[in-house]
Amino acid sequence: MTTPIIAILRGLTPPEALPVAEALVEAGIDRIEVPLNSPEPLESIRLMVQALGGRAMIGAGTVLSTQEVQAVKDAGGRLIVSPNADPTVIRETRRLGLESWPGVFTATECFAALAAGASGLKLFPADQAGTVALKALRAVLPREAPVYAVGGVGPANFADWLRAGAQGFGIGSALYKPGDSAEAVGTRAREMVAALKAAT
């Protein structure tokens, strides 16, 4: 992975999928999720995997069931991101050989997710938890467990989150909103990558 950012492309449509994904990868963001409440998300994932699967880890967000995990795998996706920490979904994701990034907010959820096999933790909504909460969680979580802050994070507070113990970020509307051109997404992605490098 070139940059510890997961791009969240909520609302993406299949015709936009490839140009937007190519713009992100060229800018240095090679983890991409299409939330399953987007239009035809599995088709977007399939198209991106066919073209960029060797250069990027592509998958789905808002994954809530084991059936959805299987559908994402069938489309070629390798990344499963959820807003919640469902041990059944996490275990099935890992059984299928995919990465699992469940949403967590409390120490109990963090440890339950890790016990189920989570690849990493998505602190969500991060802006509600705050950096103080993350710092407290990092004091007790295993050092090797990556935590990404998602929700209300961006260049203005990258440095604060990194100091609190975040290893990376999930970025949604600050990178992509429905209807944005690939060129606009690429410009924002380059700015985001530069800001994160400056903060580290």
Automatic annotation (TrEMBL):
Enzyme Commission number, as recorded: 4.1.2.21
Keyword Lyase: yes
One Pfam family linked to the record: Aldolase
UniProt keyword terms in alphabetical order: Carbohydrate metabolism, Lyase
Listed SUPFAM superfamilies: Aldolase
PANTHER family for this protein: 2-DEHYDRO-3-DEOXY-6-PHOSPHOGALACTONATE ALDOLASE-RELATED (PTHR30246:SF1), 2-KETO-3-DEOXY-6-PHOSPHOGLUCONATE ALDOLASE (PTHR30246)
Quaternary organization: Homotrimer.
Recorded family membership: Belongs to the KHG/KDPG aldolase family.
This protein's name: 2-dehydro-3-deoxy-6-phosphogalactonate aldolase
Originating organism: Paracoccus halophilus
